[in-house]
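Appendix C: a fully annotated inverse folding record. The material below is reproduced so that readers can follow the format used throughout the book. The structure is listed first as tokens, followed by the designed sequence.
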């Protein structure tokens, strides 16, 4: 009986530590994303996306356009 309770308590403690470490890691990732300004690639994606929408491109045509626009 005693060993069963000890194992259960140890498992609960380890699970708690794991969940706390995940929560801390998630907060650090949010801070990094919030502090970072939008990159050139993100801006280029917005511009290309807007142009594709203006041209009303869909499917393979849109994919081809986006590929060439992002490379250029």
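Designed amino acids, in order:
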């Amino acid at each position: 009986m005693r060993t069963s309770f000890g194992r259960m308590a140890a498992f609960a403690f380890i699970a708690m530590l794991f969940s706390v470490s995940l929560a801390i890691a998630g907060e650090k990732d949010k801070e990094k994303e919030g502090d970072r300004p939008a990159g050139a690639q993100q801006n280029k994606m917005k511009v290309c996306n807007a142009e594709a929408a203006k041209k009303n491109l869909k499917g393979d045509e849109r994919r081809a356009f986006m590929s060439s626009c992002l490379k250029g």
